[in-house]
Amino acid sequence: MASAALGIEEKLWLMADKLRGSMDSSEYKNVVLGLLFLKYISDAFEEKHQELLQDEYADEEDRDEYLADNIFWVPKEARWGYINRNSKKPEIGQIIDHAMISIEKENPSLKNVLPKTFARYDLDKTRLGELIDQFTFKVGDTTSQEQDILGRVYEYFLSKFASAEGKGGGEFYTPRNVVQLLVEMLEPYSGRVYDPCCGSGGMFVQSEKFVEEHQGNIGNLSIYGQESNPTTWKLAKMNLAIRGIDGDLGPNNGDTFHDDLHNSLKADYILANPPFNISDWGGERLTDDVRWKYGVPPTGNANYAWIQHMVSKLAPSGTAGFVLANGSMSTSTSAELEIRKNLIEEDIVECIVTLPGQLFYSTQIPVCLWFVTKNKKRHNRQGEILFIDARQKGVMVDRTHKELSNEDIKEIALVFHTWRGTTEETYKNVAGFCKAATLEEVQNHDYVLTPGRYVGLEELEDDGEPFEVKMERLTFSLSEQFQKSHELEGKIKNVLGGLGYEI
Questions:
Q1: Which of 304, 316, 333, 404 is deepest in the core (most CB within 10 A)?
Q2: What is the pLDDT of residues 447-484, one digit of tens each?
Q3: Alpha helices, H only, 18-91
Q4: Architecture of domain 2-163 in CATH?
Q5: Rounded to two decimals, what is the model's pTM?
């Protein structure tokens, strides 16, 4: 199934890429993902439509039949069959725009979400028609998330757009394996899940997948998110709809610091990938904010504002896991050091994980994961912080990007759960990889949270060779290499001398 789906994903991406032309990347992204979304909700509608046709007592045009199953009502002029039949017409752009408008009108939760830019002059209508034909394949059982090819295609497209857009791409997409690691460590089985900078909604999708894969009930999760970028907010709304996830992303996009759309929320789980090192976040207008319990964050960097915002949103036994730039672990600017010191002294920091480089499309800045909670007592780990150095994990998937393998994710998550005492195994420090450090140790390191300070060096296996024998062998080898280097030095001098350059 995986290889077949991947073939479809790549084929559709290559086809969609021909549509780009001179369009701006963000506009092009909206067109392609909007078309995918239209295809998805039409397929889900048609599947229910066929089911109702087989029931002599049902009315296949009764919208309540669809709403009862959480299926969007799709008017006749917006159904994929109608669009596909008209794909070769010059006015196909207007037909799709009209379809988007009519879907929004019939489904209030999609109001102002769908793109309506298909009639624009710089969109090649012939290629648009060809793309519609390519998208016309049978999805199969759209009610099964595991078999949902379109959902996977949507995620694949998000990752490709993130890669193509480089730094800007990170604003809406967090690499899937990083999200998987956060989810595996937090294990959001039930309760309120919050992402204050949710991008295209990847944290929520992976949380739902986690519950399904562990035979839980996704109805036990409540999803809350916020996103400041209006285009990305729309992507998130579509992404959740494609996955059949009912989430509260607010009535519109909004700045989390200045327009908190979930003001009274207390979350059981917070998963986030805030934008790194943002300098223009308007901190000078928030110096007296109630969220700054541990100190006023500097106006020139939002990292510690994000941390405190998330801590303020935690339920009494809630846990937050989030991505930050490595500098957050050791910054010594007075404001940030004071906040970090207070968080540590209050025993709120639970675990820090340093990740390998090259995981992100958007930045080469090395990153780490923070885990914070207000209730370490629950796991009997008061006065301790777990440090995990995972910089050596991961494999290169192309020349510029690395990914954590499933084995890496399981290994890191298992250390965390073992330390918490939620597994059968007994936690042990592993030199070079993990260390449970006391509050006193962290104080002695001036409140620096970089795992490398604590985990030490990896223990090398003893090869059994006696020390004297090893030293004799190594010094003999080194002597030979010195001799060869002298010979090469002489040859280089002779060559340069022949060219008139004496050394």
A1: 304
A2: 999 999 999 886 545 566 677 766 777 777 787 788 88
A3: 25-53, 63-67, 80-85
A4: Up-down Bundle (1.20)
A5: 0.81
